[in-house]
Amino acid sequence: MNNSRRDFLKVGAAASAAVVGSGTVTGAFAKEFANRTTKIPSASHFGAFYAHVRDNKIVDITSQLDSDANPTVMVKALADRNSSDSRVKYPVVRKSYLEGKGRGDLRGKEEFVRVSWDTAIDLVAKAIKKAQEKGGNEALYNASYGGWAHPGAFKPNALAGRFFNQIGGAVRTSGEYSNGAAGQVNPSIVGDMEVYSIQTAHEQIIENTEVMVLWGADLYKTNRAGYSVHNHRCFDAYEEYKKAGIKVISIDPIYTMSAQEFKADWIKIRPGSDVALMLGMMNYLYKSGKYDKDFIEKYTYGFDKFLPYLLGKEDGVEKTPEWAEKLTEIPAKTIRQLADIMISKRTFIAGNWAMQRAHHGEQVDWSIITLASMLGQVGLPGGGFGFSMHYEGGGDANSGKNTIGGMSQGGGDKVKIAIPASRMSDLINKPGETVTYKGKVIKYPKVEFMLSAGGSPIGHQPDVNELIEAMRKLDTVVVVEPWWTPTAKMADIVLPATTTMERDDVAGAMSYSADRIYAMKKIVEPRYESKDDYEIFTMLADKFGKARRYSRGRTVKQWLERLYKRSSAKREMGISFEEFWKMGVIKYDIPKSATKFVRHEAFRKDPVNNALKTETGKIQIFSDKFASYGYEDFKGHVMWFEPAEWLGNEELVKKYPLHLVSPHPTYRIHSQLDNTWVQNVHKVQGREPIRISPNDAKKFGVKDGEIVEVYNDRGSLLAGVVVTNTIRDGVVAIEEGAWYSPEDAKAGDSIFGGSDQRKVRCNSGQVNVLTSSRPTSQMAQATTANTVLVSIKKAGTVSPNVAYNPPKIIGA
Ligand SMILES: Nc1nc2c(c(=O)[nH]1)N[C@H]1C(S)=C(S)[C@@H](COP(=O)(O)OP(=O)(O)OC[C@H]3O[C@@H](n4cnc5c(=O)[nH]c(N)nc54)[C@H](O)[C@@H]3O)O[C@H]1N2
Ligand SMILES: Nc1nc2c(c(=O)[nH]1)N[C@H]1C(S)=C(S)[C@@H](COP(=O)(O)OP(=O)(O)OC[C@H]3O[C@@H](n4cnc5c(=O)[nH]c(N)nc54)[C@H](O)[C@@H]3O)O[C@H]1N2
Ligand SMILES: [Mo]
To answer: Is the CB of residue 216 below 6 angstroms from any atom belonging to ligand 2?
Structure first.
């Protein structure tokens, strides 16, 4: 083994150290700067950083280079965001709501009135009690999704959940937007969600992998930010992938950042057709006798029950490469070649999550697992599959130590209704109706009260026009936010939260490497009247006589110390909390043995003692349990189901000829940072870019740099054209997360106008006005944000985009 491969992590560290010490002139500037500012350590999803502060102002942000190997520009925008004009300054209440008139129909359209904290908290508590009287706790909906607000221990969604649990619970969500289809079925297929599991170590890939198939995985882009605090070390590893000469094949409608970096071969798949491609490959592998019969025999169950389908004996349609060519538009010859390369070389399939955020998304990982089983390399170093290489530095070796956890939601939830994430509009619109979910049936209760903290439903929910109309039916909507996001604008009561820069917190990182604990120290004083999420929910709990139970009488510092107690730093290394807080960061070594980790190796070595937690202990190519559910659109084995919207739908394509995908943003986390200067790097005339191929641009008569209207039956938006060869013909891409703002938002402020929600164009390019809330299937009921057809045309006259303006506030 060559040294540079083995030692790449060390090399990465040395390279960043060199940056710190370089240059005498810059050194002098740094010294002068240091004399005038205080340097305070903190951490974010974008990386660990120091804030340089003078007179309660953040004058610069620099990265903690020994914890962030390859910083991105996004971390710099955090200062701007903190002091942005789009901060929520005071508690406010929508005018008619405050006047006791309700008028939920005016949500998002009406000005707010500044009130005191007492009044605001009182009104929230009253609304909760009113809803409880009407429908019990089932009338309360805790819409605090996800935990993407920040990487600290005091996550707003956990704090909200903790509050509701103290008062008997609320309706919650189950599963995710991220991987709500695959994550719900994988455990029954391979005994683990796989989407959040430690991946085969980079070192094993570098040493052993000959072919890396990026099946929609954009490693370079989605690893720019992390759920905890991204260390960006994977980019050093990827350099070693390149040096090791790994052949990279990218199967994606976009020639992604990663494809470009790796100079990958590009398979320009039609969105939504990957399962057909895989079935074509599997059919070929079977008929040519090239597949790994021993692996199938020893490690899988039910191949014989899948074969009749693959060979067309069940439905009269054999899933040949020619059959797959028609669906995928990938030549049958290429399909065979792809299968041949993968069976003859040590091949690693890096799956993604976007493919399963699509109609019948449940089939995607299952097909990859079935294909990988036929290839027979599961559990071999550098072979098999991984569904998280693109996430949280997947491939990072694990320290084997404990970092630090977050605040728990505690017990007390008596509601027991968790609706699948992404069913939120249905929840509001369809009380009394039922929904199937993983073999069970859930009845939607009638919700009256909705609270969101630490997430942005008007950002994340598909078919956002449907959600806006649904939210207007509720009795009360409460949003806890530091910024005037479109979700805050849709509230009756907005409670201004401090940011992580305005209070103390801690973060463990990363999910897979588990080798850092960061102090997230208070950097500046809270802006205006904002309060910490913890304080806000303690105040609310107090209205129900539960403040003591909520807080256990502990201050934030006391909680942090308590959470820290369980870390290896305290338990094994004996570092006191005070020492940690003074140092600002704790680093654990990664043992050499961890770099040998190969996913599923234990199962491969001993499938009896290390049986998978599945029905048979083996990989379920067929699942009797799944078959027993009797669903129309999800059966006992992998199948090709035609998506409701895709380029293969000849009728629909006449009206809406382009497939729209909405990848995760390169310069944001979802909607976060959309209100900062860093967006100038990519926005076009202040709107979200739409990527389109040169052929399509010509066909639709649109030019690079101009604003166009993108539309379908669900809505329309304005986006800025980027003509590029890096997207396949027939496909356009708009990244998710632009702040919704209808074109008729009043000039001077940004209160939504628009009597007909579906007709008003979104002026900033929020892609979810176009996506559909159709579920993946009766099984997982997950989001299908990538199953969308649209058309585009010239925009005509446009007005300024006021998405980032606060609304009009009376008395402020
Ligand atoms: N079309 C389309 N839609 C998608 C997706 C897609 O691929 N395509 N992806 C989906 C996926 S996978 C996800 S995970 C979701 C993400 O959806 P969200 O989780 O809603 O995304 P964020 O915009 O990160 O929301 C975090 C919110 O927390 C707020 N916040 C930050 N700090 C604090 C704090 O200290 N206190 C409080 N109270 N709030 C704070 C931020 O301002 C922001 O509004 O989007 C989903 N939506
Ligand atoms: N910078 C940044 N990083 C992030 C996030 C962020 O907001 N910003 N969000 C984080 C979160 S919450 C999540 S869930 C993950 C998301 O991780 P992913 O879901 O994997 O990421 P996406 O960017 O949505 O999609 C990746 C690729 O899938 C391709 N794709 C779309 N449809 C198809 C299809 O039908 N077939 C194939 N083969 N490819 C398709 C897209 O073109 C895109 O290039 O990213 C995480 N990382
Ligand atoms: Mo996600």
So the answer is: yes
- Confirm whether 92-174+412-514+521-550 and 642-812 share one CATH topology: no
Give domain limits for the chain. Answer: 3-83, 92-174+412-514+521-550, 183-397+596-628, 642-812
Residues with CB under 5 A from ligand 3 (ion): 178
Atom 10 in ligand 2: which residue has the minimum CA distance?
A: 222
Q: How many whole angstroms separate alpha carbon 641 and alpha carbon 276?
A: 9
Q: Which two tokens stand for residue 625?
A: 């349990």
Could you tell me the fold of the domain covering 642-812?
A: Barwin-like endoglucanases (2.40.40)
In what helix (H) or strand (E) does residue 47 lie, and over which residues does it extend?
A: strand 47-54
- CA 155 – ligand 1 centroid, Å: 12
DSSP symbol at 220: H
Task: Look up the pTM and report it.
Answer: 0.96
Write out pLDDT tens, residues 612-653. Answer: 999 999 999 999 999 999 999 999 999 999 999 999 999 999
Q: Which CATH architecture has domain 92-174+412-514+521-550?
A: 3-Layer(aba) Sandwich (3.40)
- What amino acid positions are annotated as catalytic residues? 145, 148
For ligand 1, say whether the CB of 37 is within 6 Å of any of its atoms.
no
- 608 SS3 class: coil
Task: Quick: pLDDT tens for 295-335.
Answer: 999 999 999 999 999 999 999 999 999 999 999 999 999 99
Q: Are 766 and 738 in contact (CB under 8 A)?
A: yes
671 CA distance to ligand 1 centroid (A)? 6
CATH code of the domain made up of 183-397+596-628 = 3.40.228.10
